[in-house]
Each structure stands twice: as structure tokens, then as C-alpha cells.
């Protein structure tokens, strides 16, 4: 079973300000009403490209900044939201980085979010979820339904995988050593 649920394709949204390491994550009153900026995927390796979206600038360009890429990136509006892409610097160290967006003509940020950078080769343990008892989750040769099935994971099975998702898919390695891709909706960090 590896049906792709459209509602799951949205990236996780978290509100945040640019904070130094160890600072409080409580939002100031001005930021608590701010709109979010989402980065998809929200967990990446250094050198990876992320898609940015915000509803803060629906009718004018926005400018996204994060220490993870170190310069402003233009987000183009489409009447509903502003979107764009950014590439995380190849030398970015693992950690959580703030993302802020200021709309054209504004000197202060109006949207905030997080981006997590992990070290290459980082692995996490997942447990299969949302699969009926007695059923299985397909492991495919690539990130998509068009790739052939190379393995199966049983209900509540555990598997090692990448913390980084590619279009919602997670690269996993089964206990018998098979490496492939399963849809992330069906995997929960164990």
C-alpha cells in the first residue's frame, strides 16, 4: 500500500524568529500574528534546494532570508501566495535555521519559519503506521508510484531511513538490507 494523500504533501509549518543558539523560542507579540513561510522539504542536507511558500505577499514580491543560504531569495506572487526556491550552502552545518520573509516595500519581516539541515548519511528509525493490520507498505526503487516494488514492510515494522524527504518519499533500508523508497505518510519516527 502506498497511496499518496494530497493533504500530506504540504510541508510542516512552524513559526519562528531568527534566534541565536540557546535563545528562547517564545514568539514576541508582534510575531505571534505573523504568517508562516514553509520550506519543502523542511529537513534537508547541505547543498539541497528547497521550495519556499508564504501567503504573506500574495500580490507583490517577497524576499526570503535564512543563514542556511545567506542571501535574499526572491519569492514571486501569484495572487494567493508568493513562491520561490533557495539552495542551502554546501558548507552549511547541521542545525535548525530561521527563515524570514519581508514583502516588497516593507523593512520588517512578515513571515517566519524553520529549516532543519542534517548531516549527510544521517539515519533515523521509522515505524510503519496508517497501514491496516495484516497489510504492508511497498518499498519502491525510486521516489514515486512509477517505480517498481523492491520490498514490503509489514504493519508496525521498524526501518532505518533518511530524515530528508523527496517529494514526500523517504529513502529507507529494510532489516534484510534492501534499499528503496516508501511514502512518508506511512512512516513515523520511532
Count all strands and give the number: 15
The total number of structural domains is: 2
Q: Which class of secondary structure composition applies to the elements?
A: mainly beta
Number of helices: 1
Estimate the mean pLDDT confidence.
81
Shape estimate: elongated
- What is the radius of gyration computed over CA atoms, rounded to a whole number of angstroms? 18 Å
Terminal residue distance: 20 Å
**What is the H/E order?**
HEEEEEEEEEEEEEEE
CATH topology of the largest domain: Immunoglobulin-like
Arrangement of strands in the largest sheet: 1-3-6-5-4-7-8
Describe the structure.
With about 190 residues, this protein is mainly beta. It has two domains: about 10-120, Immunoglobulin-like (Sandwich); about 125-190, Roll (SH3 type barrels), CATH 2.30.30.40. The protein has one helix and 15 strands, in the order αβββββββββββββββ. Strands 1-3-6-5-4-7-8 form a seven-stranded mixed barrel. Strands 14-13-12-9-15 form a five-stranded antiparallel beta sheet, with no helix packed on it. β10 (about 135-140) and β11 form a beta hairpin. The radius of gyration is 18 Å and the shape is elongated. The two termini are about 20 Å apart. Mean pLDDT is about 80; it is low at about 1-35.
Amino acid at each position: 500500500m502506498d497511496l499518496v494523500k494530497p493533504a500530506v504533501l504540504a510541508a510542516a509549518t512552524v513559526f519562528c524568529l531568527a534566534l541565536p543558539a540557546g535563545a528562547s523560542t517564545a514568539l514576541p507579540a508582534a510575531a505571534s500574528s505573523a504568517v508562516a513561510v514553509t520550506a519543502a522539504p523542511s529537513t534537508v542536507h547541505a547543498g539541497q534546494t528547497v521550495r519556499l511558500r508564504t501567503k504573506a505577499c500574495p500580490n507583490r514580491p517577497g524576499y526570503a532570508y535564512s543563514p542556511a543560504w545567506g542571501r535574499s531569495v526572491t519569492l514571486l506572487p501569484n495572487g494567493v501566495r508568493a513562491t520561490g526556491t533557495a539552495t542551502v550552502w554546501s558548507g552549511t552545518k547541521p542545525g535548525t535555521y530561521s527563515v524570514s520573509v519581508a514583502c516588497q516595500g516593507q523593512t520588517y519581516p512578515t513571515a517566519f519559519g524553520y529549516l532543519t539541515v542534517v548531516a549527510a548519511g544521517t539515519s533515523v528509525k521509522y515505524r510503519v503506521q496508517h497501514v491496516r493490520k495484516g497489510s504492508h507498505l511497498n518499498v519502491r526503487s525510486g521516489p514515486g508510484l512509477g517505480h517498481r516494488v523492491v520490498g514490503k514492510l509489514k504493519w508496525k515494522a521498524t526501518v532505518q531511513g533518511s530524515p530528508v524527504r523527496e517529494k514526500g518519499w523517504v529513502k529507507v533500508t529494510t532489516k534484510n538490507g534492501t534499499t528503496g523508497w516508501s511514502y512518508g505518510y506511512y512512516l513515523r519516527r520511532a
